[in-house]
Amino acid sequence: MKCFRLCAAAILLAFTICGLVSAGTLEDVRAKGFIQAGVNGDVFGFGKPDEKGVWRGLDIDTARAVAAAVFGDTGKVKFTPVTAKTRFTALQSGEIDVLTRNCTQTLTRDTALGLDFCQVNYYDGQGFMVPKKLGVKSAKELNGATVCVLPGTTTEQNVADYFRANGMKMKPVVIESTADLYKAYFAGRCDCITSDTSQLAGNRAVAPNPKDHILLPEIISKEPLAPAVRHGDNKWKDIVHYSILAMIAAEEMGITSKNVDQLLKSTDPKIQRFLGVTPGNGEALGLDEKFAYNIVKQVGNYGEVFERNVGAGSPLGLERGLNALWTRGGLMYAPPFN
Amino acid sequence: MVDTKDSLPESKTSFWYDPAKRSILYQVVSLLFVGLLGYYLLSNTRHNLERQSIATGFGFLQKEASFEIGESLVAYSAADTYARALWVGILNTVLISGIGIVLAVTLGILIGIARLSNNWLVSRLSSVYIEVFQDIPVLLQLFFWYAFCYEMLPSPRQAIHPMTGIFLSNRGLVFAVPATHPAHRYMCAAFSCALIAVFFLRRWSRKRQERTGRTFPMLGTSLGILLFFPIGAWWLAGAPTAMSMPVLKGFNFEGGLTISPEFSALLMGLVLYTAAFVAEIVRAGIQSVNRGQTEAAMALGLKSGRVLSLVILPQALRVIVPPLTSQMLNLTKNSSLAVAIGYPDFVSVAGTTINQTGQAIEGVAMIMAVYLCFSLLTSAFMNWYNKKIALVER
Asked: Which of A204, B62, B171, B262 is the most exposed, fewest CB within 10 Å of its CB?
């Protein structure tokens, strides 16, 4: 019987230990040697592998910036594609360390869902895309339309709210996978498709005939897309938060991946502090003093990242709009780095 | 527990060598272990939820759902509660599983009998059908049928229009139905009466046959009653003939009844896949009855229909019913693949609810409870049926 008691005690002890793991995400991440980031996987320009299998996109570069800050190496991040429905559970359960998946910050998600949102990396809004030949010029003409919509997003609720507010009827077609949803839309199953305009533009860019589809002028919601971390891990949140802000601050100060090495010799105290020539910032975050240098050198400033992935030169051809620096009429604004 | 020996001084065999006591001990230990595991899981979950300040409970069911659902058997709008939205999802799952089971069993029986046909072409065609549909994953079949529905069919403005009141397009099959009229309610009531009448007629005819040996033409008479009662009710209620005709208005058809591409694709995929398995079960059941039984029954002078219904089927059904039940359950559970092709079944609606409210644990628990209920109800019914048709051994 002693043997049985020992076994029972051992089992109980094992359970107790299981309950005590995970001290903090930063320590966990350092211990395993890489960051696990939850990304979209289907949206061109934000998170999708290219034809060679290399992940590309604004959200991908955001996760890489965090890896550059923590490890000084953008390669030390692994990507897990998560669907709109599984993303929060994946983060809550610890399967991923950070969620960079064009995810809208809302009050409920920030509170009841147990998440914390960091600096917005793209200010978006929900719009409609329709086939040109339908002849629709405004979303107000969509009464009775069949609408393709992704499940488990704020999109589903926004579009229902919009149709209700305007006294119109709609028939949703809700398909879980982004790729299958757009396939159904392009084949004519729906009269229109609704989503964040960046996503619509991204999927239109890879459509069979991009010119046959137009975005309607109405923007029916605010969608501040921001990376999320688990609630209560303030240290890790600060790191993700300031990794994005570092990219914005770099653009404000005119530091790019090309000139960052030269600017190490700059005499401007602001730049010296930012690049870690004058120490302090890194220590405060629990990171290497060169974290901001690594981000700018390896990933680029926010402007570079934007242009590379979704800007005028990319297939998406999006304007900076709200995502321009505050000095140019946008919303991107970084607090002082000191 | 080492002291047990002392409390049982009379026992001659020691505690460990008494199989009865040993087995009780094993059971108590297992029960304790399962209990501890359950307690650990529950308390750990609650602790984690509290730590991450995630709200818990079922209070969200009374909040406004504020999302639309594509098709619904009951009136529903975005202003209704989550509870109502989930109810719509449950009804949609019941609809697809109910129709799917009836069609799959019917088709499966036909194919299974065809497989045993003496006609070379018929039996080979059924074999090919069974092999093809059994061996392709059902999810792929769903994608195929759904893509078929929206890629092959024209847009509503160019809808295929074979006859008045029927339109086929990538928005689904729309057809005219009788406009709502109180007569329909009377017809339903009359049909129920007819069912009861047939039940009693059947009992009477069986008793008479046992007494006198005279048979009664049950099939024709029952069909007559089942048709005559509702038609009579319709005629008495004033024979309304008004139809609700589908009309293309704006983007879509209005009026009539619409069968959506999602529903059709899901039904087609599930029925064709499950029917292949049912066909094999039916074939195995029929082949399990010794050929000598048929010959003996024929030697008694029974007609071939009676041979089937009195001799072959009662024995074959014993083999068929249990595996058939599990195929019915499979169809119901596979219907949750609807999320992949956009049919708003329970899993789809519950998924949206989970995402909007963040109540993942409650949502998943509800999904499991609902499917468990469906499965238990189906098994209970089939077990009852199995017991009823089981061979009574005298």
From this structure: B62
* Interface touch A113/B54, C-beta < 8 Å: yes
For residue A165 the two structure tokens come to 């507010």
**A13 confidence band (pLDDT: 50, 70, 90):** very low
d(CA A264, CA B112): 80
- Could you tell me the CA-to-CA distances from B136 to A4, B147, B387 in Å, in that order? 50, 16, 34
Q: Note every long-range contact of B45-50, with CB atoms under 8 Å and residues 24 or more positions apart, other chains counting.
A: B45/B361, B47/A19, B49/A114, B49/B361
C-alpha span between A314 and A308 (Å, rounded): 6
Check: CB of residue B104 under 8 Å from CB of residue B278.
yes
Question: Pick from A15, A114, A176: which is nearest to B339 by CB?
Answer: A176
* SS3 state at A214: strand
8 Å CB contact of B150 and A175: no
Q: Are A67 and A239 in contact (CB under 8 A)?
A: no
For tokens 């910050």, name the residue. Answer: A105
Q: Is A169 exposed, middle or buried (CB count within 10 Å of its CB: 0-12, 13-18, 19+)?
A: middle
Nearest CA in chain B to A171: B70
Chain A residues within 8 A of B1 when measuring between CB atoms: 1
CB–CB of A188 and B170 under 8 A? Answer: yes
**pTM for the predicted model, two decimal places:** 0.75
Q: What is the mean pLDDT of residues A275-292?
A: 94
What percent of chain B is modeled with pLDDT above 70? Answer: 95
- Say which amino acid occupies A61: D
Measured between beta carbons, the chain B residues lying within 8 angstroms of A15 are 40
- Comparing CB atoms, the residue among A15, A144, A184 nearest residue B251 is A144
In the stretch 150-179 of chain A, residues with CB closer than 8 A to chain B read: 151-153, 156-157, 159-161, 163-164, 170-177
Residue of B nearest to A144 (CA): B251
How far, in Å, CA of A334 to CA of A248, rounded? 6
Coil/strand/helix, residue B117: coil
* CB contact set of A180 (below 8 Å; sequence gap of 6+): B143, B340, B341
Residues in chain B closer than 8 A to A166 (CB atoms): none
| Inter-chain CB proximity A112 and B252 less than 8 Å | no
Please state the ipTM of this predicted complex.
0.75
Q: Which residue has the tokens 């077990």?
A: B383
CB pair distance less than 8 Å for B70 and A232: no
Query: Which residues face A224 on adjacent strands?
Result: A123
Q: Which residues 2-61 on chain B approach chain A with CB closer than 8 angstroms? A: 2, 29, 33, 36, 40, 44, 47, 49, 51-55
- Angle formed at CA B354 by CA B351 and CA B359, multiple of 5 degrees: 150
pLDDT tens-digit profile of B180-215? Answer: 788 888 889 999 999 999 999 989 988 988 888 887
Residue A324 in tokens: 């321009």
Nearest to B73 by CA among B278, B297, B345, B267: B345
- A226 φ/ψ angles, rounded to the nearest 5 degrees: -140, 150
